[in-house]
Amino acid sequence: MPWLERKVQVLVLVLVLVLVLVLVLVLVLVLVLVLVGSYSRDINTEKEMEIEMEKDIENVESLVPVPLSATRRHLYAVRTPERLELTYLGSSSSSSSSAGPAAGPGSGFYAWLSMENDRPWRRRRSYTAAPGPGSTQQQVSALSTVYLQQRKSDSQLRLAAHCTLLHSDPCCAFPCQNRGVCTAMRAPTYECDCTRTGYYGQNCTEPEFFTWIKVTLKPSPNTVHYLLTHFKGFWNIVNTMSVLRDAIMRYVLTSRSHLIASPPTYNSDYLYKSWEAYSNLSYYTRTLPPVAKHCPTPMGVLGKKELPDVKVLAEKLLVRRQFLPDPQGSSLMFAFFAQHFTHQFFKSDMKMGPAFTEAKGHGVDLNHIYGDGLERQHKLRLFKDGKLKYQVIDGEVYPPTVASVGAEMHYPPHVPDEQRFAVGHKAFGLVPGLIMYATIWLREHNRVCDTLQEVHPDWDDERLFQTSRLILIGETIKIVIEDYVQHLSGYNFKLKFDPELLFKDRFQYQNRIASEFNTLYHWHPLMPEAFHIEEQVYSYKQFVFNTSVVTNHGISNLVDSFTKQVAGRVAGGRNVPGALLHVAIKSIENARKMRYQSLNAYRKRFSMKPYSSFEDLTGEKEMAALLEEMYGHVDAVELYPGLLVEKPRPNAIFGETMVEMGAPYSLKGLLGNPICSPEYWKPSTFGGSVGFDIVNSASLQRLVCNNVRGPCPLASFQVPDLKETGSVIINSSTSHARAGDVNPTVMLKDRSAEL
Ligand code: HEM
Ligand SMILES: *[C@@H]1O[C@H](CO)[C@@H](O)[C@H](O)[C@H]1NC(C)=O
Ligand SMILES: *[C@@H]1O[C@H](CO)[C@@H](O)[C@H](O)[C@H]1NC(C)=O
Ligand SMILES: *[C@@H]1O[C@H](CO)[C@@H](O)[C@H](O)[C@H]1NC(C)=O
Ligand SMILES: *[C@@H]1O[C@H](CO)[C@@H](O)[C@H](O)[C@H]1NC(C)=O
User: Fold this and answer.
1) Alpha carbon nearest to ligand 4 atom 14, residue
2) Residue 722 — pLDDT band, cuts 50, 70, 90?
3) Nearest to residue 493, comparing CAs of 292, 211, 250, 199?
């Protein structure tokens, strides 16, 4: 059979090839061994010197001469936490009084670079750094330590040379574009992994054909935003055409959530993929890995060696001079919903540090209502009819007291026992707005239990409780998408919560909260200067940790007042209330600890063009100049300060970056919930059609109306009749903060003392 013969032929050929290869390999090995052998013989005596030198360097704090043998004297070492500089001054003729560095031809060094600090003798490599003619400086790239030696055989060593060891990991410059992954190879080279980015080339900058078409046709985020927030008549028609509406909503969901890595990748301690980063739920994940500690500057290679002083930054750019209302008219009802809702998944672990979370559910699990963990949940449960414990004050239902249930809460000592409400989240005593929402949701849970019990008289406490919890999760997601995000987006397109839209797509029903998402959600500029409830005005001092505000006014009046009071604008700069400036400062400090990449790095990660200048970022000149002075380079501006000073979109609460980054995290977190998966998303999961209907008809207004006594007040995320109240002046000329006549420093001191 001829094909068999062919096979044998091929086999023989392969065998011969393998043999030849092995032979060549052996030869090369022998050669290398011989070479290395002679080489090491040559330097053997100096090995000891190197160790000695290494020891000395360990102890050198500043410029100190390291004693060397007669022929290599005057080696100076300067050691800083970031780099090690070795300076050799002298000559082989050993005239010890060398005035300074002088270069000569043919001079050089052998430098052995070790890749790891703790094991300097492994993976040693020789490196020759010969100064160019006339040059006294030669930079040697390495990752950690360098060992210097005079070239022995060189007879012309009449020079002094300066060898600086820079930790120039090429990945510090973030050379890989379009989400390519940088891996440093043998310094100074690197590799960009462009797999599935749609790009190729050394730095993943060359688009593949289809990518090119997509990029060319794709409108910018600002264009899309413009289209969606204008042409109301057009959208009103689209909103009534369910096929079109579904298609657009599906596109919104998939295009946004595709920007989120799922399963998650990095965390604040792992710059590369690892099982630990994937599996350890105590960490927030990271969308962009941290800047490596050995990089020349905090943002990689650009910008200044030191980031600006946080307090100065906060006082010059962040603190409010004069209250700037949100032109979208967000109400305090919105602001407190945001705070209440997000604190179930932004629960930083104060003991472990900002990179860690206590909310291991990483999503909408309603632990802020039911408590984190069984122990706390059981303390809050009534164990009757599925309900949560409660108390009745003036004929209305409120959360129970800490004393009566034993669930720990954070209250300052001056709060009397009867005003210490116990709810799912330990910190919700902080502001009456949070206790208001906690009360509303507690009433809703118990109400849903009653509704379920009516149709399922046979169900036990456990089943009523568990099913009600799933219903409340569904209601929350519904309200967040159709009321909350709808308001925030300002879209004339009507958003829709419908998990079925994703059933034909590949979509991962899982979520991991990113640290960057937490950081960007620090929307403290929403908070006003004082809180107007009925006829009263509360300062921060009177408002914070004052739960009696809730019982004194009652839920109905609180909803009414919070709906009428406008919140502050988040972007545009200088709108963080003095009383909360310390929180903004903390956010920046934490981001630095976690070594966040720059604002522009995040813009690229989320498919936006990086800002080309400071004025491009702020849209004005004054703050741009201050930023330039502080950061030096626009690519070095930090994420959080950048988000707060970013130019807002016209008549909008946020700038482009906040929306383009926030929306993907948000939608992924909402739709990634298990109740949105095909196996869960059906009536039986929610106790039948009654429960499913509660989910599918949920709205903020209904939530309030179902749970307040008497006539229900208007509940809205947007202040009604904005212009009539006169509290908002929508004026393009006021789109930016101006330095008012208030001295922010004085204000800061006053306000901080209040809390
Ligand atoms: C008067 C109202 C408010 C006060 C007194 C307040 C105070 C605080 C404080 C003290 C922290 C902890 C800072 C730290 O040590 O790291 C914090 C964190 C935070 N705040 Fe506020 N805040 C208020 C309103 C808001 C609002 C309206 C939002 C809107 C979303 C918000 C979002 C956040 C977020 C996301 C965190 C991070 C939570 C974490 O990592 O655990 N806050 N706030
Ligand atoms: C890739 O990036 C590096 C560093 O930014 C640059 O020096 C190099 O020229 C780039 N290569 C290509 C092919 O653009
Ligand atoms: C997660 O990582 C932290 C920090 O390394 C560690 O203390 C903790 O024990 C880890 N958790 C688990 C479950 O492994
Ligand atoms: C708390 O609020 C009540 C009214 O609701 C007010 O009378 C009281 O002064 C406030 N407490 C503090 C410490 O300001
Ligand atoms: C509104 O803008 C106009 C010019 O466009 C300006 O003259 C006026 O002072 C602005 N009003 C406020 C309250 O800033």
Assistant:
1) 542
2) confident
3) 250
